[in-house]
């Protein structure tokens, strides 16, 4: 098992599986060097603690993780937002709701950053399994938070295989609760988006087709509605990387990603418009680079306390073999397909 970020990077960069370095493919398609174009989104990871232990998790989050963002670091994030043009704040984890400062942080953003879009990525299950979090849906509604909820399939068997026994039923219960208070209904303005991850070593199906299937299945079987579906490729990072190695499918998957490289996806890569903030305030080009501990280029600020929008806006992006995951097929980002 590759337990450290350094081990994972050595594995990804050292075992080529017969595929070219991502940097060579990027250059060959006329997309090198890869640079940021703007900073539209500040993605903030508030900690790696999670009540679930999902097989495809690139964060390696779980109940045993103790990394947690402090209020001091959150204040640095607020200052960065107040002194920049960023209007979209994407809060993730782990389960971000499990950070004890979560409500304070959301309220502070809403108070101090006018007209901000606040996105929270939720695994849904906390809302229905722990009394401590029962009031969170109403809180999120009051704060006009956009929810992006993990539901890697619309079948119980696949979800429970990926996320644990009983998770599908708890997720459905939470989605019904959210619908009851207005989430997912066009007329309310309370946006509820779902995330699909494929099971195993395949690329996601076409997003529009899969969204249609999700809508039909969820409304017919459970009476659930939602706004959008985002398809996300499983990244060869952390827990999913270890699963690939243990099953002997690592090279097969990397070959699939490389063979499916789509140069049209490069222009819309999330790293070109996003800065990722780690739980300790360290800055990264994306959430995946954060997990691999691949730092920003040396000339850019590397901690949220020294955030400078101008210096970060045109930075050179740190790349690696894992980047094939975001450029395969229709492309993949935290907001779904790119093409």
- Using the CA coordinates, give the radius of gyration: 19 Å
Instruction: Pick out the low-confidence regions.
Output: none
* Main sheet specs: 8 strands, mixed
Strand order of the largest sheet: 6-5-4-3-2-1-7-8
Got a strand count? Answer: 8
SS field, number of helical segments: 15
CATH third-tier fold name: TIM Barrel
In CATH terms, what is the architecture?
Alpha-Beta Barrel
Characterise this structure:
It is a single chain. This protein has helices at 5-14, 22-28, 71-82, 102-112, 126-129, 136-142, 156-163, 167-180, 207-222, 238-247, 250-259, 263-266, 287-291, 309-313, 324-327, and strands at 41-45, 88-92, 117-122, 146-150, 192-196, 228-231, 274-277, 283-284. The chain has a single domain (37-249, 268-318), classed as Aldolase class I (TIM Barrel), CATH 3.20.20.70. The mean pLDDT is 94. The chain starts with a helix and ends in a 12-residue tail after the last helix. By secondary structure, the chain is α/β, with parallel strands linked by helices. 47% of the residues are buried. The protein is built from 15 helices and eight strands.
């Amino acid at each position: 098992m590759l337990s450290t970020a350094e081990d994972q990077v050595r594995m990804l960069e050292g075992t080529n599986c017969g595929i070219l370095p991502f940097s060579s493919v990027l250059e060959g398609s006329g997309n090198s060097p890869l640079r940021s174009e703007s900073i539209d989104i500040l993605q903030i990871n508030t900690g790696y603690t999670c009540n679930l232990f999902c097989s495809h998790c690139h964060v390696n989050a779980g109940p045993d993780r103790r990394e947690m963002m402090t209020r001091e670091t959150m204040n640095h994030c607020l200052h960065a937002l107040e002194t920049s043009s960023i209007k979209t704040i994407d809060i993730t984890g782990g389960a971000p709701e499990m950070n004890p400062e979560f409500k304070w942080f959301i309220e502070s953003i809403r108070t101090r950053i006018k007209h901000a879009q606040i996105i929270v990525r939720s695994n849904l299950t906390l809302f229905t399994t722990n009394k401590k979090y029962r009031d969170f849906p109403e809180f999120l509604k009051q704060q006009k938070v956009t929810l992006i909820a993990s539901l890697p399939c619309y079948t119980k068997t696949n979800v429970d295989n990926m996320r644990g026994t009983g998770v599908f039923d708890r997720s459905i219960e939470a989605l019904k609760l959210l619908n009851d208070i207005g989430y997912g209904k066009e007329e309310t303005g309370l946006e509820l988006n779902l995330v699909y991850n494929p099971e195993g070593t395949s690329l996601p199906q076409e997003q529009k087709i899969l969204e249609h299937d999700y809508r039909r299945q969820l409304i017919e079987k459970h009476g659930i509605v939602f706004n959008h579906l985002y398809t996300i490729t499983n990244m060869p990072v952390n827990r999913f990387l270890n699963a690939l190695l243990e099953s002997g499918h690592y090279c097969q998957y990397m070959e699939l990603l490389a063979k499916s490289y789509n140069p049209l996806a490069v222009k819309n890569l999330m790293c070109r418009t996003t800065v990722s903030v780690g739980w300790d305030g360290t800055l990264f080009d994306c959430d995946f680079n954060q997990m691999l501990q691949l730092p920003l280029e040396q000339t850019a600020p590397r901690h949220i306390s020294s955030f400078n929008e101008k210096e970060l806006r045109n930075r050179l992006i740190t790349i690696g073999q894992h980047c094939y995951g975001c450029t395969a097929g229709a492309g993949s980002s935290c907001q779904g397909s790119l093409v």
